[in-house]
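Re-run with default settings, no changes from the original entry. Doing this only to confirm the output is reproducible before filing.
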Amino acid sequence: MASVKSLAKDTAIYGMSSIVGRFLNWCLVPIYTNVFAAAEYGVVTLIYSIVALALIILTYGMETGFFRFANHERWKDPMQVYSTTLVSIGVSSIVFIIAACILSPELARWMECGAHPSFVWMMAIAVGVDAYTSIPFAYLRYKKRPLRFAALRLIGIGLNIGLNLFFILLCPWLWKVAPAWIGWFYNPTFGIGYIFLANLISSLTTLLLLYPEIVVARLTFCFKLWKEMIVYSYPLLILGIAGIMNQTIDKILYPLLVPDKVEAMTGLGIYGANYKIAIVMVMFIQAFRFAYEPFIFAQNKESGSGDKNQAYRDAMKYFVIFALLIFLGVMYYLPVLKYFISPHYFSGLKVVPIIMIAELCFGIFFNLSLWYKLTDKTIWGMWFSLMGLGVTLLLNILFVPTFGYIACAWAALGCYGTMMIVSYFVGKAKHPIGYDIKRVGFYSIVAAAFYVVGIYAIATPYASLNLSLRTILLIAYIMLVFKVERLNLRSLVPHRHH
């Protein structure tokens, strides 16, 4: 239980940067959806979907590879591992940036922003820099420095948000009242380009702030080590590509599957905006991931098999408990949370519960992934993700032309649900952990019942009464967890040793 408490503490600290940052970015959505037309926001959704895929390709599984080999029994010098990883990612990122800048006019036409190739090269530089800085950030996680990790993340995120507010809100106002002040750098026709410019500036600033973590490495390159890391990591690259495509391929395919381009970009904008409401679950999973990967490798290195398996079982159980709590919270307060987007986008609210359940399935899948990472059988993760990608592609191609973006949401659920189920049964045969399926199933059924009661039974004409009754239900769920798990608040607080 002590190791799980440590995991929970690190998850909370890493989550501060992830959750607070994403929440602040989330708060930009009402600005975007009120300032830009749905078709313009569709372009933003498309470009960021491609960026997410590019970032996975440019890190090619080396984050996890770094953790594995920094804790590897055959490679005694973690700094050699760190330096080799930095050099590898640095070279590939530079090559990517140069190629993307050269091809920016053609790429811009494909991304429906042909008049602005600068959108492409700005995001190419930003994603190349982000890929490189992912390794110094991984080094901070390895050194168990979550506070500096969180501080640097928050500085970059804060700068990005501040620049968004400056370019999108303040500059248009100044352009009306005092254009001479900003006329030397501001162009009102640049529009959504300022979103990408803000991203670029914040990425470059983060790179500068990580200078101490970069120069601490001796920048040596061990080719033999690099080959072993690539062999270990390349299935994770395919896993990552398939995984991120499972998250983004619907947004990339959508304009291709809907014949009318204006209708396609408008629908994509509505879907992308409502997807942001469900991102609370994504934030929790990301925060958990930042803490969980170093945790499982350290646990495997230090503990006996019985202890470490119990820690893994506890981690899975409490992950599901908190994820279900987040699901209920978002769905109960959706009548309020929906105003984070413009009312013009409310037609897409029906995708929110589907996307949240899909992300919950993905979180469970991530928990289940520990067995093939610990046993160096990452090829299994590749097969699971490719299977999920096949489901995603099939369901999108079959149903998007008829049902629109709602089919994208159901395809995501079908994808992650399939990956979760298959991964569980294969893992049970290959490397059994002994997860408490009865307890996890119990909480899932309870949460489903609370959802039905809270959404369908509590539906009075009075919004404040509905929210009050749903809050009581949410508290009841939390109290039930404490009773079943026999928890008390004092047991959750780490003891201080004098």
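Residues 223-257 form the longest helix (35 residues). The chain is about 80% helix and 0% strand.
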